[in-house]
Design brief:
Jelly Rolls; 182 residues
Length: 182
């Protein structure tokens, strides 16, 4: 199977089979049957794409309640450090995060189930980031956790002076103020 388990239940790294020759390469980035065979039944309804420059951190974001989202994330150009933080109430890994370098070169993807906060940091001059969601975005149901929370100690792969972050993301609450996802 092209899925690798992570230390956090439900969070999977997807490594698609790639066919390469002198013309270039081909791979299936998503196939519902392949994902279902691995126990992933997400029905994706929305695709999002963002381009950011070196040092940009986006996150940690999530949607709550009936608007929670599972995501399948990948990088089309460049490289990022991708972070998923378990915010599921009652989870044995509540408050633990998993990080992985995703790039256009390694073609790895991360499947993030509902109940996770998510973010990424751009480690290349530019990165084109793409992700599928199994639920629609709802502004009234968004939440977040500050990316540089001292309790979480997330390693974004950047020096503090290199970080470029929106004021909105810098003002997100700290982990200590957070309550488990519903």
């Amino acid at each position: 199977m092209p899925f690798l388990e992570t230390p956090i239940a439900g969070l999977f790294v997807f490594e698609p089979q790639v066919w390469e020759d002198e013309r270039g390469y081909f791979y299936e980035a998503f196939n519902a049957k392949t994902f279902a065979a691995a126990g992933i039944e997400a029905q994706f309804v929305q695709d999002n794409q963002a381009r950011s420059s070196y040092g940009v951190i986006r996150g940690l974001h999530y949607q709550v309640g009936a608007h929670a989202q599972a995501k399948l994330v990948r990088v089309l150009e460049g490289e990022v450090m991708d972070i998923a933080l378990d915010i599921r109430g009652g989870s044995p890994t509540f408050g633990q995060w998993f990080g992985i370098r995703l790039s256009a070169a390694n073609r790895k993807q991360l499947f993030i189930p509902r109940g996770f906060a998510h973010g990424y940091a751009v480690l290349s001059p530019y990165a084109e980031f793409f992700y599928k969601c199994d639920n629609y975005y709802s502004r009234g149901h968004e939440g977040g956790i500050c990316f540089d929370d001292p309790i979480l100690r997330i390693d974004w792969g950047l020096a503090e002076e290199e970080v470029v972050c929106s004021e909105k993301d810098r003002s997100l609450p700290l982990w200590g103020a957070h309550r488990p996802a519903e």
